[in-house]
Amino acid sequence: MANYAQLAQKYHTPLFVYNFDAITQSYTTLKECFEGYKSLICYALKANSNLSLIRHLANLGSGADCVSFHEVRRALLSGIPKYKIIFSGVGKTLHEIESALKADILFLNVESESELFLVEAVAKDLGVEARISLRVNPNVDAKTHPYISTGLSSNKFGINHEEAFKLYLHAHKSPNLLPVGIHFHIGSQILDSAPLIESALKIKELARGLLALGLPLKFFDIGGGYGITYTDEVPFNLQEYIKNIINIVKPLDLSILTEPGRFLVGNAGILLTSVLYEKLNGTKRFVIVDAAMNDLIRPSIYKAKHEIVALNPKSKEVSKCDVVGAICESGDYLAKDVNLPDCESGDLLIVKSAGAYGYSMSSNYNSRLRPAEVALTNGKDTLIRHRESFEELIEDELLLLDENTDKVDDIKGSKDV
Ligand SMILES: *Cc1c(COP(=O)(O)O)cnc(C)c1O
C-alpha cells in the first residue's frame, strides 16, 4: 500500500490520491473483454477530468466521452485524438455544437429533435457533414439510484424509438448530417446486466431496420454505467456481459463503443483526510475531519456509501460514528454509522473508492479551497493538481467599488487579512 502518511505530510490533507497503475489495470481488463472484436473505449471524462489522468488513459489508447465542449477541449489537450472523441448531453449550446463540428470529433450523440435540427443548421452554415448518433431511450429501468437512472421515458435523456426512427430517416436524407452511430446509456452504478442486455436487444432491432434502409451506421454505443464495489456491492461479470453484447452486435457488423467512467477510475482513487476532533452529542459519536461534502458530495446527494478506514488505528476496538465535515449543513457527512477506532486530532482516515465523481463534483461551498490531487505510478507520487489558494478562489470576482474610497488592489491585494 502507498505510504499515505508520507503523502499527507508532503501534500497535506484533504488529498485525492489516484493509483494510475490501477487505472491501467481496469482499462486493460475491459479492453481484453473485447478481444477479437472491433471496439472503442471512450472514457467518460465527467467521472474525473484531471488532465494528467486523461493523458494516462490516452496513452493506453482510450477515447473520450464528453458532456460539454470544455470536456472536449480537455480531451484534446490531454492527447486524445479527435477521431476518438464523442460528445453527449441533453443541453449542448449552439456555440458548443459549432465548436465540436469545427474540432471534427468522431460524432455527436444527439438527444432531441430540436438538437438534431440545430446540428443540421450549424453544419450547413459551416459547409460540413456532421457525424451524429442518436441517444435512444430504451425505456428500461436500470434499477439504480433514481438520480443516476437515465433510461426511462420519465428521465430527460434520449429519444424514444419511433421518434428516433423518424429522425434517423431525416438525417439520412440530409446533406449535412451523417448518421454513423446509435447510442444508449441507461444509468450509472448498474449492478445487474439484465437491463443493459434488454436495452441492447431493443436498440439492435432499431439498428437492424436502419441498416436495411441503407443508413451508414458504424458504431453501436452501449454507454457506460458499470457498477463497482464501494462496500458490499457485487458487480456483474463484465466479461460475460461483453461477450453477450458482441453476440448481439456481431450480425450487424458494427463497432462497439462503450463509455465507462466510474469503472475505470472509481476504485483507483482515495480521499485522504485528517481527523480534527471527536465529539459526543449525548451518546452519538462524531468524527470531524478536514474533508467535507464540498470535496466528496456522493454520500450527501446519493446516500452513497464509501468505506472509511483509519490509517494507523491505535486500538483494535471500534465503535459506531458519523464521519462529518466542517460545512454548515447536516447533510455534510462522508459516512454514517461506520465503525472506527478512537481517533485523535491528526489521525489519518482513508475514504475509499473516491476516484470517480469526487473531485469532479467538488465545489467551493463555505469558501473551502479544493484539495490537491496526486498520481501514483509504480509507487512514485506526482502532484497533478496543486491545492487551491485563497487568491485563486477570489480571482474571478469583480469588486463593486465605492469610487471615492476604494481601490481594487487595496482590498484584493491586502496581505493583512
Ligand atoms: C455519465 C455518463 C457515462 C459514464 O457513466 P459511469 O457510470 O461513470 O460509467 C457514460 N455515458 C454518458 C452519456 C454519461 O452521461
Q: Specify the CATH homologous superfamily of the largest domain.
A: Alanine racemase
Describe the global form: globular
Based on secondary structure, the structural category is alpha/beta
Number of domains: 2
Give the N-to-C terminal Cα separation: 41 Å
Mean pLDDT reading: 95
Second-tier CATH architecture of the largest domain: Alpha-Beta Barrel
Number of strands: 17
Oligomer: single chain
Q: What is the CA-based Rg, rounded?
A: 24 Å
CATH topology of the largest domain: TIM Barrel
Number of helices: 13
Task: Characterize the structure shown.
31% of the residues lie in helices and 23% in strands. With 417 residues, it is α/β, with parallel strands linked by helices. The protein has 2 domains: 20-265, Alanine racemase (TIM Barrel, Alpha-Beta Barrel), CATH 3.20.20; 267-389, Beta Barrel (Lyase, Ornithine Decarboxylase, Chain A, domain 1), CATH 2.40.37. Strand 5 (107-110), helix 6 and strand 6 form a beta-alpha-beta unit. Helix 2 (20-33) packs parallel to helix 3 (51-60), helix 5 (94-103) packs across helix 6 and helix 8 (194-212) runs parallel beside helix 9 (238-249). It binds pyridoxal-5'-phosphate (PLP). Pyridoxal-5'-phosphate (PLP) is lined by residues 44, 46-47, 65, 67, 88, 185, 188-189, 223-226, 259-263, 356.
